[in-house]
TrEMBL record:
This is nicotinate phosphoribosyltransferase. One of its GO terms (cellular component) is cytosol. Residues 68-176 form the Nicotinate phosphoribosyltransferase C-terminal domain. One of its GO terms (biological process) is NAD+ biosynthetic process via the salvage pathway. It comes from Lentilactobacillus kisonensis DSM 19906 = JCM 15041.
């Protein structure tokens, strides 16, 4: 079984409430490698955060440095998201009539873009690790489903989904470029 068979079965109303996926869960024939990995973005010493960057010969593997906040951008007065925006945690993005952003895809030809008339809502919230009260799985599931429902339906298709834009602030982009330039100077 794979996502296409499961979607088809559910769409046809099959009375199934559990699926056994097996190795299809581990790998995908069309994209056998997960494109995201954890990489060091900052270190902290004496309460001071220092942004870090991983340099690679492959531009798309260049990390986005620093402590970050992710904002979901909505059409004003709606629950319709049209993009996400990665910012430094120290930046505050408020509802805006105009903001210059940078495409987070390092291979993008048109890197800078101007966004107009949107509402910005932060997606990341601090978690108190000393709090022993756990969040029920059902709460996590409901929150995840609600956030997915905000995305355009065309991005949720299993076959030929539209790309969902992810931008970064110009401040974050400038930090990335600055750290990259420092690494280049050190390598020379």
């Amino acid at each position: 079984m794979d996502e296409h068979i499961i979607t088809s079965l559910l769409h046809e109303g099959a009375p199934i409430d559990n699926f056994g996926i097996g190795e299809k869960l581990i790998t995908s024939a069309s994209a056998p490698v997960l494109s995201g990995v954890y990489k060091l973005a900052a270190t902290e010493s004496n309460g001071q955060s220092t942004p870090k960057i991983k340099v690679s010969a492959s531009r798309e593997k260049l990390t986005i440095p620093g402590d970050k906040q992710v904002y979901r951008l909505y059409e004003p007065g709606t629950q319709r998201a049209f993009a996400d925006l990665i910012a430094l945690a120290t930046e505050t993005i408020v509802d805006a009539t105009s903001l210059t952003v940078v495409n987070s895809d390092p291979l993008s030809v048109d890197r800078q873009q101007r966004l107009t008339h949107f509402e910005a809502r932060p997606l990341l919230a601090p978690v108190d690790l000393s709090n022993t009260t756990s969040i029920p799985v059902t709460t996590i599931q409901a929150t995840t489903q609600a956030k997915l429902a905000e995305l355009p339906r065309t991005t949720q298709r299993l076959v030929n989904p539209d790309l969902y834009p992810v931008y970064m602030t110009t401040t974050l982009s400038q930090l990335q470029t600055s750290l990259l330039n420092k690494m280049t100077i050190l390598a020379d």
